[in-house]
Amino acid sequence: MRKPCCDKQHTNKGAWSQQEDQKLIDYIQKHGEGCWRSLPQAAGLLRCGKSCRLRWRNYLRPDLKRDGFGEDEEDLIIRLHALLGNRWSLIAGRLPGRTDNEVKNYWNSHIRKKLESSHRNIGFTRLRAEISSAARSKSQANDPETLLAVNNQVFDSNGGKPEPSNKSSSDINLDLTLSIPSKNKQESSEEN
DNA sequence: AAAAGGGACAACCGCTGTGTT
DNA sequence: AAACACAGCGGTTGTCCCTTT
């Protein structure tokens, strides 16, 4: 049995206070990310290291977008989910400024219901079936890179992805070539 | 105006993958 | 090769807030 990541009797739980946020921000600005296990003590926080990591990555990181999802982002999420399933970190890696948790929440609360109830569902189901079928015909059907390439072919033959909205943001990476997510995120944060 | 219901989102939990010893 | 430590991931839960009755 693995030891717990921290002594839960001496850690806070629940919503973060402004003071806690500030301590975490200050510490990471000084020392950078990493070594989450020892961070809480070093930063003077009564929190589990995992909790600190989540708070930073999902909420406090300076490169996060805090506005709502655009139509183009939603379309991309739908396309990627059809390909990759619930691999939220991979999907989020294609959406600069978005986190896996954010994408997951958005999917569960908005897109899934929308797809289940709308006419779009018909197209979505058909699309997914086509992608799966095309991918199965390849020997590396479970290889994400192959799936993405197949997806692009299916979309091209379908006349491309849905019309992008006017407020299409230029920083969304519509090039569905897989790269290592962590590297990708690092590059995008360096751009900002 | 108050209560109930539902949606949205932040946070937690347990498991897995990976690197190190 | 095995055991361990750690970071990361996805599923789930809890809480807040808005809408409806």
TrEMBL record:
Keywords: DNA-binding, Nucleus, Repeat. Residues 8-60, 61-115 form the HTH myb-type domain. Residues 135-156 have a biased composition (Polar residues). Pfam families: Myb_DNA-binding. Residues 135-192 are annotated as: Disordered. One of its GO terms (cellular component) is nucleus. Its main location: nucleus. Gene3D superfamilies: Homeodomain-like. This is Uncharacterized protein. GO terms for molecular function: DNA binding. Coiled coil: none annotated. Residues 8-60, 61-111 form the Myb-like domain. It comes from Populus tomentosa. It is found in: Nucleus.
